[in-house]
Amino acid sequence: MKNLEHVCYNTRFSHIYVEHRIRNHPRTEQILLRFPQAQIVEIEHYKDVFNRHGQDGVRQHQAQALILAEKTDHFFYEGAPVCQDFGNTNFYYCSTMMNCIYDCSYCYLKGMYPSGHMVLFVNIEDYLEELDHILKTQNMYVCISYDADLLAMEAVTGYVRLWSAYAAKHENLKLEIRTKCAGHAMWDLPCLSNVIYAFTLSPQKMIDAFEKETPSAFARIVCAAEGLKKGFPVRLCFDPMLYLPSWKTDYLQLLSQIDRIFGDRMLHDGWEKLVDVSVGTFRISQEYMKKLRRVEPFAPAVQYPYVNCNGVYQYPPELLKEMESFMITELTQRMDKENIYHE
To answer: What contacts 243, CB < 8 A, 6 or more positions away?
Structure first.
């Protein structure tokens, strides 16, 4: 089983690029201390490395570099239409990190970013200061882990703990932390009703085929179950659902695996304890798909003959409806339908 420390402490960050202006930032110094063997390269701006033309993001991911930078504007963005808001108003997301340590072949980040390297913005306090002003006039639902798996880097950054400490002081703020990691150290974080831990789950066959370097389905489910037992708000995300010829059997096995693990850990009411679940088949904007197909020419999940529906590539309507309806039907046998969200 992969744990948080195993995922974070590896040789991938053998080169760390640092913007000159934040070279002496306390957080920069803390992070560099964790990688004493890394070669440090000072740069003027992260885009000088991250936005270079002609990069091979897939190959770069095999020897991923870390870029430490300062975010200067656009701290928060309105949630995209293809993303679920779970009934929340004022839905936003933010990126304190860009790119992910995992290597899922279908990931939209490969179509969104020109580079496979990871950017970490060290000035998180500026995000929180901006949030101070916004929360004076409205509540907010903020997804802080869309463009990276923030929890998988927690041992390096400590950002989830910082976000949690902030959320503890602001009742009109709700955070979602989406993850595929299975680091049990996360349950040493504060247990707060307004910080939701959302685990993306896939059948093991699909993890093996499409989600390189991620923890197993078993590890993710066990971690989610542990969080539920400790009283943490947990969401399960069957999103994106992916197609294989055996998809129906695969997802039935995944649901049975969840039932069994919940039972083994005396969580007989585990499904009811969940905040909610989300269901959605794979979908991606046509802009991102164009590049994704170029950089992942041999990935079945990418090269499938999707249909373009108003600028979004998705499964053909009949298959999409069959997959989502099947999952919703199965889930309604386990929990209240009102707590099942689907796109």
So the answer is: 281, 282, 301, 304, 315, 319, 323
